[in-house]
Structure to design on (300 residues):
């Protein structure tokens, strides 16, 4: 078991409500110049959950299961919604507190920047009971999580219990071996670069080069997959740094826009030599949390 500072972390409540899908314009122009009208962010997605493929949907930036935001200040950039998006961490428990599904328990699976949504997975039956506007409260824990004996490795956006379930292990006393489904070269990263912090939101794997995406196996990614992004430093924002490695979770689907693709929310990052990714087919949060036994079987 990894030694963390979990016993010193604050556990707080944050709340959001199921959002409505939004369209600023009916058309989006693809990276190859086609005007398309497609489903996208927000709402309740009844037929997609964490563990399902992130590619192949007739959609753009679609978010699995349930998208929530705190609408007290109306604008996505409001302070209350920033609190929700910063404090909520992947793996946190989420409870429906209003409506027909009141009492149902789900799990935070990601954060989507720009739209500033927190994504929550629920069982199929619960998805059918939820309605837009239902409130979901999250038991937020994970902000400030650290490995005291490995201060060079920075952790973000992950529940302490989920971190322990990943099966990470120290290698050679200085490096942390981390299971990932795929490795992503830094040159494929796009929208979200330059952000001053990775404590919320995500950044996208660009997919305009179909040959590279297929060759690297990126087109086989699933929602919830852990991926390693090579030569990227996410300690104080998102940037290129040779030898650094960042690990994140795939949170939304492929996209047609230039500079966009499946979104990745960062969970750890370090400079050269401190994180060693190892490829595992089931490196997906749904597997570690037992959310999709129909896909991954029983949890480890």
């Amino acid at each position: 078991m990894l030694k963390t500072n979990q016993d010193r972390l604050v556990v707080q409540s944050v709340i959001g409500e199921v959002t409505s899908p939004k369209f600023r314009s009916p058309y989006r122009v693809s990276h190859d110049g086609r005007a398309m009208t497609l489903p996208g962010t927000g709402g309740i997605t009844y037929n997609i959950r964490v563990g399902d493929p992130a590619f192949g949907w007739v959609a753009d930036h679609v978010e699995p299961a349930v998208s929530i935001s705190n609408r007290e200040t109306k604008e996505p950039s409001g302070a209350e919604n920033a609190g929700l998006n910063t404090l909520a961490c992947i793996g946190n428990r989420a409870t429906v507190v209003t409506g027909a599904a009141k009492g149902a328990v789900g799990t935070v699976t990601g954060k989507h920047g720009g739209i500033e949504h927190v994504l929550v997975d629920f069982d199929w039956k619960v998805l059918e009971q939820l309605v837009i506007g239902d409130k979901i409260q999250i038991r937020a824990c994970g902000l400030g999580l650290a490995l005291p004996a490995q201060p060079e490795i920075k952790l973000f956006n992950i529940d302490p219990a989920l971190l322990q379930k990943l099966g990470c292990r120290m290698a050679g006393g200085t490096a942390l071996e981390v299971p990932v489904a795929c490795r992503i070269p830094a040159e494929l990263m796009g929208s979200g670069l330059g952000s001053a912090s990775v404590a919320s939101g995500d950044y996208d794997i660009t997919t305009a080069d179909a040959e590279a995406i297929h060759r690297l196996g990126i087109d086989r990614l699933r929602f919830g997959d852990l991926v390693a992004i090579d030569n990227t430093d996410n300690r104080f924002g998102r940037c290129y740094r040779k030898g650094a490695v960042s690990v994140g979770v795939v949170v939304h689907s492929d996209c047609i826009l230039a500079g966009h693709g499946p979104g990745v929310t960062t969970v750890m990052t370090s400079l050269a030599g401190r994180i060693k990714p190892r490829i595992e087919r089931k490196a997906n949060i749904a597997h570690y949390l037992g959310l999709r036994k129909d896909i991954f079987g029983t949890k480890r």
Observations:
- The mean pLDDT is 95.
- The chain is about 10% helix and 30% strand.
